[in-house]
Amino acid sequence: MATLTESRPRVVARPLTLSRDKVLYGGLLVLTAIAYLWGLSKNGYANEYYAAAVQAGSTSWKAWFFGAFDSSSFITVDKTPGSLWVMGLSGRIFGFNSWSMLVPQALMGVASVGFVYVSVRRWFSANAGLLAGGILALTPVAVLMFRFNNPDALLIMLLCAGAWAVTRAIDSEKHAARWMMLAGALVGFGFLAKMMQAFLILPAFGLAYLVAGRSALGKRIMHSGLALVAMIVSAGWWIAIVELIPASARPWIGGSSTNSILELTLGYNGLGRLNGNETGSVGGGIGNPGWGGATGLQRLFGGEFASQIAWLLPAALLATVVLIVAAGKAPRTDRTRAFTILWGGWLVVTGLVFSFMKGIIHSYYMVALAPAIGAVIGAAMLVLWRRRTEWLPRATLAGGILLTAGWSFALLNATPTWNPWLRWVVLVTGAIAACALLMVPELGLNRATARRAGLATGALLIVTALAGPAAYSVSTIATAHAGAIPTAGPEGVGGRGGGGGGGGGFNRGGGQPAAGTQPGATTGTAPGGATTGAPTGGMRGGGGGFLGGGGTSGVSSELVALLQQGANGYTWAAAAVTSNAAAPLQIASEVPIMSIGGFNGTDPAPTLAEFQQLVAQGKVHYFVGGSGGGFGGGRGGTSSEISTWVAANFQAQTVGTSTVYDLTTSN
Fold it and tell me: Comparing C-alpha atoms, which of 411, 465, 350, 364 is closest to residue 146?
């Protein structure tokens, strides 16, 4: 009886040859760069919350270092500032604009594809590396996030680089400690990009080296300890500085209720994401399906998540099993087993956390699964393809492609009016590919004919696997995306409609649109029927309500002129409730705007007394409320107290479509 463990192919590193491998590798990177850079400026300032911080960092080193929202450094964004450092430096060098902000993100995507390729190629083959890198490059959510300004792009690049470093450590005996320390440092810097999400890969990285490293067990343990130290130093130096420096000398830590980076790390952006107890949060997943739906193994295969990442997720899980079986009872240092622990562990651990976490989760987080999906499929495909003359590997490969074709058909059927022919092409192509896999080896073809038949079958396999995600990726590239919760693919995918994500049912205070709502725009409706205050037309992007308004296009030229003329002599040209109301004002006017209450207006910064003192000291010139006479933003707390005090003590005036209060002239 044939088994996958029989005649296991020897897995060795293969030298690059200029005639083929380097050309194809270079072609993969060039095509990825073209895809990620094509029409990039259509995304404008993407997530204006982060764009405002990038703008601030491009003009103020203090704001750059702390990740402050404004150049006067009143409050930080609710993440560590690693990704802002990269985009802020680009803004300093090339001037702040959409291109200088987004091009580094796109290049991080190209680098991520490169790291996946070299990692897979090292232990398998160039073809396996090309397939793995191509899958990552064409995953819809990866295309989305590598053309956006969220922290995920830097995080994924660093984790892919870390996986490559662990691969080198496993291969090396003399320099294993150096490679493991590099891996630890890369993960640590990943923490400075998106905090504790970077640590989800630690079990896979650590176990892969401890199991398969060439050194003796004692040395492997020591090397792992050194990697842990490198990670702590890489992640902890900035945390230590922020904690030790006096609060009066730095901005308020956005997203925290006690002005503590440790609280933000362990609470809102840490354990709170797992158990749903998120102090400072916009609302967790418990009892609120608007933030990711019900927990469980089914989460990633339905709703808003499936179209972003799940195209090849069933195949990736099957591929992980194939690699486990292929390793069989091989020696401890077997590279197939090490690879499975490394990349399969990344996939399984991260996938389980995303499936069962009770706090805030958005579909674009799924980009963290894309490198592992590509890697395990690329490797398993090679293992099965080399043994396709044997019935069990051949049947497994045929079953996998039928599974992928059927699942792609189901995902494409979720948007039945969008290219309806495509789902049938994928289904039929998959059926033909499966039949060819099963039948060709039985036909007794000569070597040349069998080779041509194999190439044709391989092409059918690739078309079946990648046609769906590639089509969604092309749609993503062709469409402008903005807002706090972007979604890849055509209109109507997932569970949130064409806008790519609502705000979970929250609306702005008083039901008023945001300060930057576009004049004449209609308001959307979030799940549950709440008015979001976000325009329903224009760019794809989600958030609505306090998660984003109409963007800089909704800030009138009259208001821009007023803010710029009134900026001289003031620390903040104006104040507005929530960062997402302040962001378009700051970007459009290029002057610092105080974000009252931080991201969603609930941070206790400033208090009413502190704001009154700043006004008395002449540090804030204007207060900008919502359009049509409302204040916009905020959900109680100090932001509501400040709004009430401003309305009671200062005269309102309408500038463009916004309500503005001159804080230098009281009633």
Answer: 364
